[in-house]
């Protein structure tokens, strides 16, 4: 991976470490990330109760693979992390579509984590197929405590504003323009819709799995943030 790209991400929030996977899938309940028939029924009820015209329910399940002192475990994204911890976020969706992952900085700027020329530009994913962030390696928390924000956007079709951001980032070593208006517009639109009840957002935790669900008019992008607390 391009060293300059890595330096941008390191300055932004976490250090990206490329290393061979040390985690055995057999040690984790992969099925916990899979959406089953009862989830589909619950989504149908959620859509019905929302009173949104032509509703669609998008859900994302995530768990964090944590490596601390050579020990590997799975934790919720709300877990408190410490310097030296290495993490990889694993996730599935209940629908097919396009996914975008970004790191949001306190300055208002963003760094694109996926898709990128280094991780691959094909960002179409299938439902109930496990994916990871980062795509390769893991993040390592540096020695500066703080709250690191990851932003996920998922939609049935490519999002023009984010396609623009991805293209821009590809030419700027992963970083989106300081104003990042095209990314902020997608995030702000989602927030404003929640306030007007044009969008219903629910979240729940089950042991080490976090589920975020959105009910919105069909085709509306799903937007979620994950705040990683580093103390």
Main attributes of the structure:
231 residues; alpha+beta; eight-stranded antiparallel β-sheet; globular; disordered N terminus
Explain what you see.
With 231 residues, this protein is of the alpha+beta class. Helix content is 22%, strand content 38%. The protein has one domain (3-230). Strands 1, 2, 3, 5, 9, 10, 12 and 13 form an eight-stranded antiparallel β-sheet that branches. Strands 4, 6, 7, 8, 11 and 14 form a six-stranded mixed β-sheet that branches. The radius of gyration is 17 Å and the shape is globular. The two termini are 29 Å apart. 36% of the residues are buried.
Q: Can I get a quick summary?
A:
The protein is built from 4 helices and 14 strands. It has 231 residues and is of the alpha+beta class.
Count of alpha and pi helical runs: 4
* Biggest sheet features: 8 strands, antiparallel
Strand content: 35-45%
Percent in helix = 10-25%
N-to-C SSE string, H for helix and E for strand: HEHEEEEEEEEEEHHEEE
Rg calc: 17 Å
Contiguous runs where pLDDT drops below 50 for at least 5 residues: 1-12, 18-28
Number of domains: 1
Question: What structural class should be given to the helix and strand makeup?
Answer: alpha+beta
Our measurement of the CA-to-CA distance between the termini, rounded to an integer number of angstroms, reads 29 Å
List the helices and strands and how they pair.
Layout: H1 3-12, E1 15-17, H2 37-50, E2 55-68, E3 71-75, E4 80-81, E5 86-93, E6 97-104, E7 110-114, E8 124-125, E9 131-133, E10 138-140, E11 146-155, H3 160-170, H4 181-195, E12 200-206, E13 209-217, E14 222-230
Parallel strand pairs: 4-14
Antiparallel strand pairs: 1-10, 2-3, 2-5, 2-13, 5-9, 5-10, 6-7, 6-8, 6-11, 11-14, 12-13
